[in-house]
Amino acid sequence: MDPEYSLQDVVRCHLCETPVPPLHCVICSIHLCKTCVEKHLSDESKEHKIVSFKYRRSTPKCQNHLTRICELYCENCNIPMCALCFSSEEHQTHDVVDILKSLESKTSVLQNDLKELEERVYPNLKEIASNYQEKKTDLDQNSKKLSTSIHKQGEELHREIDIIIEKMISDLNEMHSKYISVLRNQEHEITHTIYEITKSIADLKKLLNSNDDNQILAYKSRNADFRRLPFSLNVSLPSFTPTNINNEYMFQLFGSLSALTIETKSLGYTTESMNIESSSPDRPFIDVPRIIIDIKTDYGHLNKLLGVTCLSDEEIWTCGGDNIVRLYNLHGQLVKSIHTASGNMPYDIALTKCGKLVYTDNDDKTVNIVKNTQIQTVIRLQGWNPLGVCSTSSGDLLVVMDNDKCKQTKVVRYSGTIEKQIVQYNVKGHSFYSYDKNSNIKYIAENRNLDICVSDNKARSVVVVNQAGKLRFTYTGPPSTTTSTKGSFYPVGITIDTHSRMLITDCYNHRIHILDHDGQFLRYIDKCQLRGPWGLCVDNRDSLFVADHITGQVRKIKYNK
After folding, report:
1. Same-domain status, 500 and 535
2. Which of 26, 74, 80, 234 is the most exposed place for a label (fewest CB within 10 A)?
């Protein structure tokens, strides 16, 4: 007890002075001990309502019957009421409960809500709010970067337009000068002829008036010469036919700005736990990538290992210089082997969305799918040779192919056996991809923006176009400031990780390039005993699998934290 308070401050029973009474009559407004309750209730001259001491102030007076207290609570009307109110027809069909029980229930709800807000919701929202400044900074930096790129593209476009305008004006001036020269020559000739005719008319009149027989006999007519008028000019004047310029055309010419994607996730939690989900930045790289597992295969010097794709986190399909596609587990044990239907070596392998194996047969000009142990040809080409293949997020197949007769290369999208799209030329009519019969190394992947990414070993580049087939960027190697002493870029295998980063094997330089989704160089992987890395893939955890065609081993590499 606080020493400032005397014993007189202790709450006592109003009838017997017993300290700290546990009960209270809300009608009479007196405190009661248990012993005095019966005595108090014996006074039948008025009503009584005994409640626990803690509820002594919780029972309001009835607004309709001022002499009575509210003992009940109507949950339909959300109002307290007395017994007389309840007896009215208004509340007969409503849910009416004891007001103290309702109060206790509501108090429990309030306490739980307070606890949840203080311990869970508020701290998590504060944490999320603290990340918004970082997100705004990222947004500002990204917008500044894109604005610079857009202005730069605008300047390039203006320069190209200025060149076109200057060329057209020059051609027009040249045509103008040429036509003026012709007109002047014709005008001079006609003026001279008019002068000669005028002089001849005067001479004839003078001769006729002279009566000089000798001169008349000596006269020779020049009319035949005067009848020969100058050649008439049949001129088709130049004209200018402007291209119908509309927004769609201009955006195709200028470039494209990808849409802003905002994914809002709810705060899913229970009263026991709450997990706040929010978008996180790309998983950072570890300082030095390292080999986790070396998987030995049956490929060797003659049948070099070329391709790898993940069936799961525990099994990988491989292909190489023979006619067998092999499935290995991470211990290097052969789980399954599939012989190609034609007996030819497969050029590339991929997996469909449902996990079925697809391979291209360059010599047989087919794309094939393996269902259990049966091989079905889904695409048979005429004149074209299939090279790299990948399965898209929509379930389509993208196949890069070349043609020895027309010496061209293109990418074709297939839905089943139906050809849906061809990607081959840029807006100027030039091919995106090189052709070389002796160096037809090309692989393909789709990134998470639905861009089509093709590695072109002959051109020493990776070409990325958007879903509509418009060029996004071409990567030919890192900036000079990051270039090592090694030679040119020799891209072969290509894959995309879960953060839309592109990984490309640089076979003859024994390293892997990692780019962001806009083609900006991020880093190399070049210290993992790589010897001729060719095909590569990532699993669901972003572990990297690299097919080393010199050693015949598949290396599982960790490069993310």
Report:
1. yes
2. 234
Q: Is 150 part of a structural domain of the chain?
A: yes
Q: Which of 103, 132, 154 is the last residue of a domain?
A: 103
User: How far is residue 444 from each of residues 222, 433, 494, measured CA to CA in Å?
Assistant: 83, 12, 7
For residues 354 and 374, give the distance between their C-alpha atoms in angstroms, rounded to a whole number.
Answer: 16
Long-range contacts: 460-464, Cβ < 8 Å, 24+?
Answer: 460/488, 460/489, 460/490, 460/491, 461/489, 461/491, 462/491, 462/494, 462/502, 462/504, 462/515, 462/519, 463/432, 463/433, 464/519
Pairing of strands 452-456, 461-465: antiparallel
* Domain count along the chain: 3
**Helix, strand or coil for residue 11?**
coil
- Whether the CB-CB separation of 440 and 457 falls below 8 Å is answered with no
Domain range enclosing 202: 104-232+244-254
Residue 158: half-sphere exposure toward Cβ, Cα within 13 Å:
6
Same domain for 145 and 116, yes or no, is yes
Beta strands in 311-446 (DSSP E): 315-320, 324-329, 334-339, 348-351, 357-361, 366-371, 374-380, 385-391, 397-403, 408-415, 418-423, 442-446
CATH of the domain at 486: 2.120.10.30
Q: Is residue 444 one of the residues assigned to a domain? A: yes
Q: For each successive 10 residues of the chain (561 residues), what is the average pLDDT?
A: 49 87 82 89 80 69 74 80 78 77 79 87 82 83 88 87 88 88 85 88 88 83 77 73 63 65 49 35 78 92 92 93 94 94 95 92 95 90 95 93 93 91 90 89 93 94 93 88 61 93 94 93 90 93 92 93 81
Q: Is 503 exposed, middle or buried (0-12, 13-18, 19+ CB in 10 A)?
A: buried
